[in-house]
Design a protein that fits this description.
Shape: globular
Number of helices: 13
Low-confidence stretches: 1-35
Helix content: 25-40%
Structural class: alpha/beta
Distance between the termini: 18 Å
Strand content: 5-15%
Number of strands: 10
Amino acid sequence: MIKRRTFNTALSLGTGAAAASTAGLQGLPTASAATGDGAGTRTSPTVTPGAHTSFASLKQVRAGLLNVGYAEAGPAHGPVVICLHGWPYDIHSFVDVAPLLASEGYRVIVPHLRGHGTTRFLSSRTFRNAQQSAIALDIIALMDALKIDKAVLAGFDWGSRTADIIAALWPQRCKALVSVSGYLITNLEANLRPLAPKAEYAWWYQYYFATERGRLALADKAKRHELTRLVWDTVSPTWDFDDATFERTAAAFDNPDYTDIVIHNYRWRLSLADGEPRYDGFEKRLAARPVIDVPTITLDPERDPFTAPGNGAAYRDRFSGAYDHRTLAGIGHNLPQEAPSAFAQAVVDVDHF
């Protein structure tokens, strides 16, 4: 099991740092997995959570239906890692992860998902759709625009789902996968069946967004601020973040499409909103719960109320390739920002399976 490590002095890692040599890492403790059948680990550098507050490089690129805003770190010709955020978060979930991976020689791409930050739709006529396959195709389009044939995909929450889908439907584009909370591909039929009441309680905002009251609250900037801050506090109960950390991410929620995208995502998952016919073929394949055969590490945050019991057993059969599972003690939902060293270590490890 990898646990978050705290160091007296944070490593000072720039976004353009050169690759660290193996010899330079030998003094660091070796990470170990809770369970696994993948290859052995190699130790990557570590950082104190919160050591970084911004990205040195922010860019825009036209990709598919979007003009995508994204952060980039590391050498331009390094092996690519694409880090994908969840809700209610943004690219700052990877603000400490990116320089760690850059120091290992990776080219790190961290995009704002549709409806977030500086990502914009190219046309006002495009339906503000947030069904799972549409978001996954955004990332395929981004890879095409940046001429990236294959990348390690790593994410949490919406980002895990998106990475899982690409690994399942387009494995030729996914070199390896790091998926927080495991297999998150949505099955609409299964989502119609109720969970245990305690599990349903954790999803209160999903049901709130199914109502007009919830939509109006998300559209109101002050109420949106309170609502998203409440989610941060409840799903990461041990994360001692400050107001400035939240505000840096909350700025991404001022995107003009934010409300429409978030509301559609949660209503679509409950079969309360339609998707688009153009994605029907992809959704039919995803409904069959396809097995993922690319090398994978799954991470469970112990203090996340959405973490399934069983130490990964609930989704183990969905991964057929080289695989490892790790549970991070004392960590909540925003795992990359709460435990950046463990997240970066998982990326390095899975890339060497």
